[in-house]
Amino acid sequence: MTGVTLRRMQTEDIAFGMRLKEIAGWNQTAEDWGRFLAFEPEGCFVALWEGEPAGTVTTVRYGSRFGWVGMVLVLPECRRRGIGTTLLNAGIEYLSVAGVETVKLDATPEGKYVYDRLAFREEYRLDRWQGVCREVSWDGVRQAEPEDLDRIMAIDESAFGADRRRVLLEMMRGRAGGVLVTEAGPSTGYAVTRPGSRAWQVGPVVADDPEAGVNLLRAAFGGLEGRESYVDMIRSNIDAVCVAERQGFVVQREFIRMYRGPNGYPGSPDRQFAVSGPEKG
User: What CATH number corresponds to the domain at position 48?
Assistant: First the structure.
């Protein structure tokens, strides 16, 4: 067998996915890979080069409004053979055939030109902030209870642009103390923290107004005091960025959120104080 071929990703491929993400220095866990397979079992692929695993791609659909292509990873020794492009096209095709209106992804500045040629357009810029969480004060925030779930989902759909209940439920599952909500009042919001393979991840954090968003971020950072953490923030959300700066965090890397299609459901970026990760929105 010569050249590149694709097959559906299976549970036994998670170890290969972890190997790839370690080479790339990314923060995903084996549980994250398992979630990708649970979200979209027919839309995750492994590329084979001459019969051996060489790369991966995952997809996530949010109804018919939009879907995400992520985890496009290729072994260093197999790069520059068109494998990454083949994987990317497979993700796009899967989402398109599934009836998704808009395809989204997060590009690096170096890789943006590849997506430009595939009719992707820039939506906004994101930065990954990294640092050790410090002690900080906050108010108006508490740990979430089961009865808060519907409120969390309603807040999120409006800000994110689509229903991502299945993704949020998986991220929240078993995260005792890792889901925060605002106290009852005129402002509403929630925040999720979860462990990664290299650092804790803060996000998503969604709120109706800056005061609630800042309080949620401060509470999330305070709950992770002394721990290395990452938080992915939309650059234009200055209130969120200021919290990260005051924590002493620094920018680790930049992403460019891009879309292909009408982008009829952009959500409200100003209400997203942290995103969940480039591969999940």
Answer: 3.40.630.30
